[in-house]
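To illustrate the input format used throughout this study, we show a single complete record. The first block contains the structure-token representation of the backbone; no residue identities are included at this stage. The design step must infer an amino acid for every position from geometry alone.
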């Protein structure tokens, strides 16, 4: 399999060659359509001017005159009316003029050999050192009729330019290839580093470093990759913590169930002890049931299985019903509950949002202090419906505030049974609110306790 570097070099050089071929074809078309007629016309005027000068100056030596013309860059062929011809200047490579062309000029007509040359490439057409690739003009001197054929002496006029253009073309091709090799290495190097870093991520090594300092798309890609690696590292840590926590949360009640089941097998226990053990076992079973239900709910929410079935309803009425259900628990703990619930219509899923309020209220009760207080309010503004739960509980540290919505995270980081819970409730709250295009915020109260604010779109 070819590397990206080789592919890039091959494609770039291929583009250069293809561009050169296309440029050659286009320039050749331009030469055939524009430059070739112009070149023929220009040389025709020069030939006629030479013939005119010779005709008007019968006293000049025609041979010396034509030799002087050839010395400044022309190849000449002079044919007498007897058919005898003579060359002046550099020799023609191919002396292929036809007798009909000579007769045509001797009869007073102009021969357009440059224009009528077969349509070959301009390299062949312009540089073809052939007698047929000339301009033929009639020339009269001292009453004698001649046919003068001429063309520019390309070798004399452009020999140094040939060498210069040859070196220029060779150096252009060579330098282009060298620069393509260097620039391609510069472009491909970051991709090679990203490939190596990707392989490190694949084997679980997230502490990758990329020495890529660029201000282009590859630089942006490198920054995004580093950001992704940090997110993956965090997710991997969360996965490990998730497995550890769920293993503990499942193993702990199972151990209790097993232990109390073994106690029930004893014949020496009293009826009251048996009732107590069965109660503990049922409590642990309920705890496992709650855990699995919350895990299934989270899994469904993560897959976004169209669980959100929105309709309009009065959230204040829903909140009052929830408070009535918790009235006995609130009174038992001696908690002062106050609320301000103005009638507010919400467009959302009543069942899922009830789960949100249930989690927030149960947390406020569980983590509150004896004789504490809970304040619940529902308010609206132009863009949002704000539902607030404020309590006077144990409160949260800065670190706990950052992680309070992480799955299985418990604010006190304990796994005791002093405060029952799975550590999934607030994660479920955040997920449900996000599915409603809202957000949930948590902050410490100035005195003590915690305040949760849920923002829902005011549609």
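Output of the design step:
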């Amino acid at each position: 399999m070819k590397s990206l570097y080789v592919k890039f070099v091959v494609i770039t050089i291929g583009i250069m060659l293809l561009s050169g071929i296309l440029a050659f074809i286009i320039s050749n078309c331009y030469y055939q359509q524009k430059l070739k007629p112009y070149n023929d016309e220009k040389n025709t005027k020069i030939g006629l001017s030479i013939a005119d000068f010779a005709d008007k100056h019968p006293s000049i030596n025609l041979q010396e005159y034509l030799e002087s013309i050839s010395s400044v860059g022309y190849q000449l062929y002079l044919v007498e009316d007897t058919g005898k011809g003579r060359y002046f200047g550099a020799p023609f490579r191919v002396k292929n003029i036809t007798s009909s062309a000579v007769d045509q000029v001797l009869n007073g007509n102009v021969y357009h050999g440059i224009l009528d040359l077969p349509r070959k490439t301009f390299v062949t057409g312009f540089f073809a050192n052939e007698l047929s690739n000339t301009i033929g003009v009639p020339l009269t001197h001292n009453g004698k009729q001649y046919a003068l054929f001429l063309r520019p002496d390309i070798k004399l006029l452009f020999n140094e330019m040939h060498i210069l253009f040859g070196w220029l073309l060779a150096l252009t091709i060579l330098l282009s290839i060298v620069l393509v090799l260097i620039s391609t290495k510069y472009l491909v190097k970051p991709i090679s580093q990203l490939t190596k870093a990707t392989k490190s991520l694949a084997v679980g090594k997230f502490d990758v470093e990329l020495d890529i300092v660029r201000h282009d798309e590859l630089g942006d890609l490198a920054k995004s990759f580093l950001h992704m690696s940090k997110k993956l590292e965090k997710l991997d840590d969360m996965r490990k913590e998730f497995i550890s926590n769920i293993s503990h949360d499942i193993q702990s009640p199972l151990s209790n169930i097993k232990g109390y089941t073994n106690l029930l097998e004893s014949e020496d226990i009293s009826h009251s002890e048996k009732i107590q053990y069965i109660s503990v076992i049922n409590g642990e079973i309920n705890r496992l049931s709650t855990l699995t239900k919350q895990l299934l709910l989270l899994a469904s929410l993560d897959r976004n299985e169209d669980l959100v079935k929105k309709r309009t309803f009065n959230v204040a009425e829903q909140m009052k019903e929830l408070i009535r259900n918790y009235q006995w628990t609130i009174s038992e703990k001696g908690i002062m509950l106050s609320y301000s619930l103005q009638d507010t219509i919400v467009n959302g899923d009543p069942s899922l949002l009830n789960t949100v309020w249930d989690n927030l209220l149960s947390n406020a009760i569980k983590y509150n202090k004896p004789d504490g207080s809970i304040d619940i309010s529902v308010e609206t503004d132009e863009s949002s419906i704000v539902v607030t739960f404020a309590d006077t509980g144990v409160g949260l540290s800065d670190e706990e505030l950052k992680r309070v919505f992480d799955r299985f995270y418990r604010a006190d980081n304990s796994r005791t049974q002093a405060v029952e819970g799975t550590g999934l409730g607030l994660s479920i709250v955040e997920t449900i609110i996000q599915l409603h295009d809202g957000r949930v915020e948590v902050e410490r109260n100035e005195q003590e306790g915690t305040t949760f604010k849920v923002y829902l779109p005011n549609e």
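Structural context for interpreting the output: Confidence is low (pLDDT under 50) at residues 413-419. The radius of gyration is 49 Å.
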